[in-house]
Specification:
The protein has about 575 residues and is of the alpha+beta class. The chain has a domain at about 425-565: Sulfite Reductase Hemoprotein, domain 1, CATH 3.30.413.10. Helices cover about 30% and strands about 20% of the residues. The chain is built from 17 helices and 21 strands. The structure holds siroheme (SRM) and iron/sulfur cluster. Siroheme binds near residues 115, 148, 431, 432 and 436. Iron/sulfur cluster (SF4) binds near residues 437 and 475.
Length: about 575
């Protein structure tokens, strides 16, 4: 079949995947090439499936060019952690790898994964072996496959959370590529001489047209931003049991300035399935996308466009054809919020959990705020779990009453106390952007905290310091911080300039709308101040900021992704 393909009309990545011999490419040769810190182009694409991205330090770009040096190449490594749950030992391993081989920080991502930044080529293998030695891996953390599966697994919330964690883990395992390339290349396991023996029963030899993302959520909390996912499972709970899941398809945030046919889109609910059907449903949806997704133009190859191109009814019936049975009618559900809920919480089993705000998901030591040291110390003395949330935060879970006291003391010792953090900051997300992201037009993680401080001054002036408002910033329109679901969203246009989007809602079920383009910081503050003032005086009781700006017509509601404007 693949031999009949007209490669000229397909995106060049399709040929690279096909020629890679089930994700081997010439990675071994690229790793051995001591002349450069980079990999051959095709290997930079294939290595994504192994959980890494080649990057350059963009802060050093000009100086390296001036000195006629090649860019300062290094790699980000992303660890696959379904549901974000790791043990203290695993945390300690990631901590020590970040010290030994990376830039001394840990990044908690918007998909509940760890990222290490700044790993040079010669340290890649040692780092990946270190990760695997603590029973974690980086397979399929990136690439045209199913990515890390998200869910909210805090056992303090209910016994159902353990069940969805199990589901997320099963989904992740089931949808892993089956090539042995990862084990050969990184873990020195036996080389398969004729690796064409490998089969990819799910993916085939060209894998998916594009990345594929799944999340599970238990209402009323939409803390995995379910409608931004290719595939979302909404748990339906009756008599304290999960009786099944509503199935939502076709979400995605990625978009591109100047290309109106690339837009963010919300997932749509197409029906209900039983818990025992979840894996099958996910597999068949993935297969429909594999077989019908656009392989010509990567800007249009996510599943959201397959759905918009063919229609949701066609998509649903195609999935049902693959399944051999029909979905049941969707059940009613209600989300009341997205984001995380902070502080100590006593669980159903009398154990405690602490949800800590981690600004921009960056675990690092600063002079008076030694978060990294504090978490290392906690991991050394306690026996529970660390849970990475989908909002770049961290839950310390399964804590006994004795451990609670000790953890409190450790946090105090290192200056990390869950003190007063504004409702705006608590609900903030910033993508990585500069200095590592090759696609960033502007700062995000390094800038949003100081912008929030300035917006907080305005909010405090109007008595709104504690008002929870979802604010998100990304350095480009790809949407890694899911900015198009924020009540206040910023997307970088160029250095120091951002588009401002308003009117997403607090439950993560509405896209926002472009309010003003290419604003500087002064302009952002000048635009926001009168709206905040109006909100303080004229909002209805309990009315959220995102709903207010729609009611007062600062922006019109975006009803569907294809209407979204940059
Ligand atoms: Fe992302 C690419 C970082 C979540 C949409 N994303 C990138 C790259 C790898 C840049 C690149 O391709 O060279 C970024 C690396 C920056 C760095 O230096 O670390 C990057 N994405 C991230 C993370 C680390 C942001 C964060 O600050 O947490 C998140 C890692 C998640 C994970 O653990 O797997 C991250 N990315 C997302 C999300 C949010 C989500 O998945 O819930 C999205 C929007 C949802 C979606 O996929 O539609 C997202 N990333 C993208 C896109 C646009 C995809 C598209 O459909 O157009 C790109 C660019 C691409 O794929 O071409 C991208
Ligand atoms: Fe990079 Fe853009 Fe993603 Fe931010 S949104 S991490 S700038 S690709």
């Amino acid at each position: 079949m693949s031999d009949e393909i007209n490669w000229n009309e397909l995106s060049e990545i399709e040929k690279i995947k096909y020629d890679s011999n089930f994700l081997r490419g010439t990675l071994v040769e690229s790793l051995a090439d001591a002349i450069t810190g980079s990999m051959a182009f095709a290997d930079t694409q294939i290595s994504k499936f192994h959980g890494m991205y080649q990057q350059t330090d963009r802060d050093l770009e000009k100086e390296r060019k001036r000195q006629k040096l090649e860019p300062a190449y290094s790699f980000l490594i992303r660890v696959r952690i379904p549901g974000g749950v790791v043990s203290p030992k695993q945390w300690l391993r990631m901590d020590s790898l970040s010290e030994e081989y990376a830039n001394h920080t840990l990044k908690l991502t918007t998909r509940q994964a760890f990222q290490l930044h700044g790993v040079i080529k010669t340290n890649l293998k040692k780092t990946i072996q270190g990760i695997n030695s603590e029973l974690m891996d980086t397979i399929a953390a990136c690439g045209d496959v199913n990515r890390n599966v998200m869910c909210h697994p805090n056992p303090a919330e209910s016994e159902l959370h353990a069940e969805v964690l199990e589901t997320a883990r099963k989904l992740s395992e089931h949808l892993l590529p089956s090539t042995t390339a990862y084990h050969e290349i990184w873990l020195d396991q036996k080389l398969v001489a004729d690796s064409k023996k490998d089969v990819e029963p799910l993916y085939g030899d060209r894998y998916l047209p594009r990345k594929f993302k799944i999340a599970v959520a238990i209402p009323p909390y939409n803390d995995t931003d379910l409608f931004s996912q290719d595939l979302g499972f909404i748990a339906i709970v009756e008599n304290r049991k999960i009786t099944g899941y509503n199935v939502a398809v076709g979400g995605g945030m990625g978009s591109t300035f100047g290309i109106p046919e690339a837009y963010p889109r919300l997932a749509e609910v197409i029906g209900f399935c039983l818990p025992e059907q979840v894996i099958d449903v996910a597999e068949k949806i993935l297969l429909v996308q594999r077989d019908h997704g656009n392989r010509l133009n990567r800007k249009r190859s996510r599943m959201k466009y397959t759905i918009d191109d063919h229609g949701i009814d066609w998509f649903k019936s195609e999935v049902e054809k693959y399944l051999g049975y029909s979905f049941q009618e969707a059940k009613s559900y209600q989300f009341t919020r997205n984001g995380d809920r902070f502080g100590w919480k006593k669980g159903i089993d009398s154990k405690w959990s602490l949800t800590l705000f981690v600004e921009g998901g960056r675990v690092a030591d600063k002079s008076d705020f030694k978060l990294k040291s504090a978490l290392r110390n906690i991991a050394q003395v306690f026996d529970g779990q660390f849970i990475l949330t989908g909002n770049q935060n961290l839950i310390i879970a399964n804590v006994t009453a004795d451990e609670k006291k000790e953890i409190g003391e450790i946090l105090k010792k290192y200056g990390v106390l869950p003190g007063e953090i504004s409702g705006l900051r608590q609900n903030s997300i910033a993508c990585v952007a500069l200095n590592t992201c090759g696609l960033a037009y502007a700062e995000a993680e390094r800038y949003l905290p100081s912008l929030i401080t300035k917006i907080e001054t305005i909010l405090a002036e109007y008595g709104l310091f504690n008002e929870e408002i979802v604010i998100r910033m990304t350095g480009c329109p790809n949407g890694c911080g899911r900015p198009y679901l924020a009540e206040i969203g910023f997307v970088g246009k160029s250095e120091g300039h951002y588009n401002l989007y308003l009117g997403g809602n607090f439950t993560g079920t509405r896209l926002n709308t472009l309010y003003k383009e290419t604003l500087t910081e002064d302009e952002i503050l000048a635009e926001l101040k009168p709206i905040v003032a109006d909100y303080a005086v004229n909002r209805n009781p309990e009315e959220k900021f995102g709903d207010f700006v729609i009611r007062k017509q600062y922006v019109k509601e975006t009803l569907k992704g294809s209407d979204f404007k940059h």
